Amino acid sequence: MTHPFPATPEFSGSLYRPSRFEGSVFDLEVEGQVPESLNGTFFQVAPDPQFPPMRGNDIFFNGDGAVHAFRFGKGRVDFQRRYVMTDRLKAQRAERESLFGLYRNAFTNDVRADGVHMGTANTNVVQHNGLLLALKEDSPPYAMDPVTLETHGLYDFDGQMTSPTFTAHPKFDPETGALLCFGYEAKGEATPDIVYYEIDRHGRKQREVWIRGPYAAMIHDFAVTENYVIFPLMPLTSDLERMKNGGNHFEWQPGLEQTFGVLPRDGDGRDVRWFTAPNGFQGHTLNAFDDGKGRIIVDMPVTDGNIFYFFPQSDGLVPPPETLSSRMMRWTFDMNRPGNGLTMVPLTDFACEFPKSDDRYSGREYRHGFVIGMDMTRPFDFERLGAPPFQFFNLLSHIDVATQKAKSWFADAQTCFQEPVFVPKSADAPEGEGWVIALANRLVERETDLVILDAQHIDEGPVATVHLPMRLRMSLHGSWVPAAA
Fold first, then answer.
1. Which of 44, 103, 232, 234 could make a disulfide contact with 478, Cβ separation 3.0–4.6 Å?
2. Domain boundaries, the chain
């Protein structure tokens, strides 16, 4: 590599400096005792750019997808990491430099990238029908071998997928194993079209429903219950002319309400209802369910302004992070009432994100949630670290949504966490009885550890800490796959 990465916050420090390596480590060093019941693989994916950005700087979400696999068995952990060999990454490796410009804007690419699929496969990774699917919401999945992490290529479910886009946050029906998924901008860049799919556990498409939103907007995550699908449209809108003029794919709209499309799972596009709420930034879905009284409950974090500083409003304004308030919110959609029967109440008194619940209760009434949280009243090593970086979360927390009480573990003044995953102690264990696994970033030492905590006693700290002999770049999402799968 003949050019260095820029010395900007997006490419420096122990969180965001690119890692850029592939390899494996057999039998990682363990402090404490890895529970014997942990038998499977924790998959995760990180946006990790292979080459410095073509335009001199870039956003975190535009990096090349690199998949981590932590394989658990008999109290031991092995580690494996490989890049998803996307068309984009192969083209850049052939030229030994970046060929792609602004995030999701092909009009800003190098001419040598013409005709190259832009998907980065860097946002989430799940297993379905024997394939590991690396996901990015502007692209079909990339299929990988779950054992070797070899990339098979772009995957359209054997020709059954009709949209050029596919969510990075599919859900699984806990009773049938079906993959519940969607695409937005589903008829091309900046189109308001949304498609919803249900694909059975054998990879056969069972449902395809098209709806048209009120405007083209980011729909990063969604919610599914036994009877409904909920699409949250963020006030981050896309515009084709802006992109053609070299602008951002997304732009924050401070005067635009949050909009939710609610679709019956057995309905068609004519059955969708639209609800609105004051301007705000919806996060990732913790869980959702039908309450049996005609109401839909959706739990997700909400911030009262734009946290994506890299997608500012038209005048370039970005609110200072300290002026924003964020909480886990419970949204209630009253399907019995005509009009905008939507209310929300907070479930936490602290900022949190990257939520996970017990997958066995996905779309069903539930009680336990797990998040990474932020509490800046806790100690922080400002002297050695300066200001906290973007996506700084210093708590691992368990939320009891029934009592609205939380337990949290705070490691120290220089550690923050990445998205957790929940693993039940056994297939028939009570809800929430199990283990929380997460990566811990040691910002001063510039190291990464994997921590394992008892989910019901998360405040007591790790039962085991697994040490990596290298630093991993900040990742996004992942999933647990039992060995039997």
1. 44
2. 177-347
